Amino acid sequence: MASSRVTSSPSPRIPQPNLAFRRLRGQRSPAEFAAAVRRAAREIGEQVACDARYIGRVEAGEIRCPNYAYERVFLHMFPGRTLTDLGFAPRSSVRGRRGRGTGEAPSAHLPAHSPAHSPAHAAAGERAAEETAEAYEPYDTQDQQDQYDTHDNHEESDVLRRAFMTGSGAAVAAASLATFGLATDAAAAGRPPRRAGTGEAAALEEAVRKIRLLDDRHGADGLYRRAAAPLRAAYALLDAGATRQTTADRLHAGVGELTLSVGWLAHDSGRFDDARSHYAEALATARMTGDDPLEAHAFCNTAFLARDAGRPREAVRAAQAAQRAARGLGSARLLSLLALREAGGWAGLADRAACERALARAQTLFDRGPSDADPEWMSFYGEAELEGLEAQCWSALGDWERAARHARRAARLQDPHFTRNTALYTAELADDLARGGRPDEAAAAGLRVLDLMDQVQSSRILTMLSGTARVLLPHRRTPGVAQFLERHADLPRTA
Question: Which InterPro entries does the record cross-reference, listed alphabetically (predicted)?
């Protein structure tokens, strides 16, 4: 998405000291507070190069609104507060100045594959793009902040971005898909196809499968950045055209599913703005091609994201839209999952009766069993996931005993081969037990999660564990709780 450039001279605005932020620093020195920021970033899978100078610039009012990475870290450090509570200006009030050099790609997080790069996608995606503009629009600082934004931006990604921006087309696309071991014969021979064929479509579909499998086993954090290049490559293949209409249909469906997969990686690693953008792009693709299965999937993910982002009413609406799109697809299991997405929204709205109705509908549909019409992407949805999502609903409603009961079932039913979900359900169990006044059992469950964290990278799970640790702090003299808190504090974090 293009953003307007400002060519006028910088505003003469006199910085106003950020006294609220200074109060939060307390008695710590700027250097000590910067170290605390870096530790908090590692807890949620972020990487920021915060130092005493950055803290000084914030407190002096030179940084009116932090970039998205720092925003996530600060809100993690001070739960329940908003940016305004931390002394920053609302992002909407400072938007419009560009902190990057002219012509540079938006961000290491934000892909350069927007459907606007293709005339056909531009028309179909205009409405969805407008709805997600906030994820792409720049923020204002008194000067450039990029020196502090140290998210991985590997040389390979830079080369790929430059190649796409100069229109290298299917050659770079096929080579980029090789990131996941999916190079096509044409790419291997150095002969890029003028148009994509069945080989490229198959490679794209296999990329989706591989990303989903790796996420199931290891979580999203380390995978998200690696998946950006195949996604850009997929859009380049789409723009190159296809030899047949059937192949073009496969490419559109594959690109949509890959966009949703990468969006989920962003979602699970706490990058909600990025995820929202990916989901909107997939929805635009679905609407353009009349792909009901893809539309149902896009709305399903949007509902889940809205719930996690604290927009429960939007979660309900998106889940209901997904059910309308899925109504004629013949998959009871898909409708069951979508009913659970709706239940999550109702739980967020504290509407217990509506939540219970949606949960009952989800169980009834699930009991009809699997069918050939079930989408491939729903391979994760079994009895364990059903129990895990229901546990989240009861947790949101504050019924900790019932939530713990379902979370325990989810952890017990989950295939241990999928480490990430086992850790997720057990972390849910630990949190429910802690909040339900059972600290010893909560600590034991938390320790089981910690045993798995050398195999899993998921900001979602790390955030849940941090919340559990805070709840258990008053019980830190209890031996089991003390062991959990000590191990949690020493847990290696990877960004």
Answer: TPR-like_helical_dom_sf
pLDDT of residue 401: 96
C-alpha triplet 345, 347, 352: angle, nearest 5°: 130
Q: CA-CA distance, 93 to 87, in Å (whole number)?
A: 13
Whether the pLDDT of residue 440 is over 50: the answer is yes
CA 300-305-310 angle, to 5 degrees, is 130
Domain positions in the chain: 19-89, 103-138+153-290
Residue ranges of E strands in 112-257: none
* Residues 175, 233: Cα–Cα separation, whole Å: 8
Residues 176 and 227 sit within 8 Å (Cβ to Cβ): no
pLDDT tens, residue by residue, 11-35 = 445 678 899 998 898 888 888 898 8
pTM strictly above 0.85: no
Exposure string (b/e) for 208-229, b if CB count within 10 Å is 16 or more? Answer: bbbbbebbbebbbbbbbbbbbb
Pick from 388, 393, 466, 461: nearest CA to 434? 466
